[in-house]
Write a structure and sequence with these properties.
Protein name: COMM domain-containing protein 1
Pfam families: COMM_domain (PF07258), COMMD1_N (PF17221)
Organism: Mizuhopecten yessoensis
Low-confidence stretches: none
GO cellular component, one term: endosome
Family: Belongs to the COMM domain-containing protein 1 family.
């Protein structure tokens, strides 16, 4: 039960210390000082491995492994107005989930307007993430 609390909260060392102290002061089923020290040593040695393992095990969808891009200028097009227009060529490498380790490559092009829209969407996402993060 104690270990599950430590893992589910992804406790840092200050949180762990407060948690362990509270568990040693319980009236019933309290941790002994030896048990508390064992938890501290174990958590210090294995916290990152446990966290990384949980992240891998709970990743149900593909994850972005690599992004490559370049800007090209169109030299041929069905529409004459599009010739000499810059185009972003994107390549995304997607890694399968923890069950399927397959890598998939997705390639696509974006014109200037679409690129501006995507960049604005990314800024909006970053703004939302920053609202809820501890930065």
């Amino acid at each position: 039960m104690w270990f599950q609390n430590m893992v589910s909260a992804d406790m840092d060392f200050n949180q762990l210390e407060a948690f362990v102290v509270s568990q040693t002061k319980r009236r019933e089923g309290a941790l002994t000082e030896g048990q508390a020290n064992a938890f501290r040593r174990f958590w210090k040695s294995h916290k990152n491995k446990i966290h990384d393992s949980l992240v891998v095990d709970t990743n149900w969808n593909n994850s972005l492994k690599q992004v490559s891009w370049r800007i090209d200028v169109k030299s041929q097009s069905k529409n004459v107005d599009q010739i000499n227009e810059p185009t972003a060529i994107m390549e995304l490498q997607l890694q399968g989930n923890s069950i399927s380790k397959n890598t998939e490559v997705v390639q696509f092009e974006m014109d200037e307007n679409k690129l501006i829209t995507v960049l604005q969407s990314m800024k909006d996402i970053e703004s939302e993430i920053n609202k809820y993060s501890h930065q």
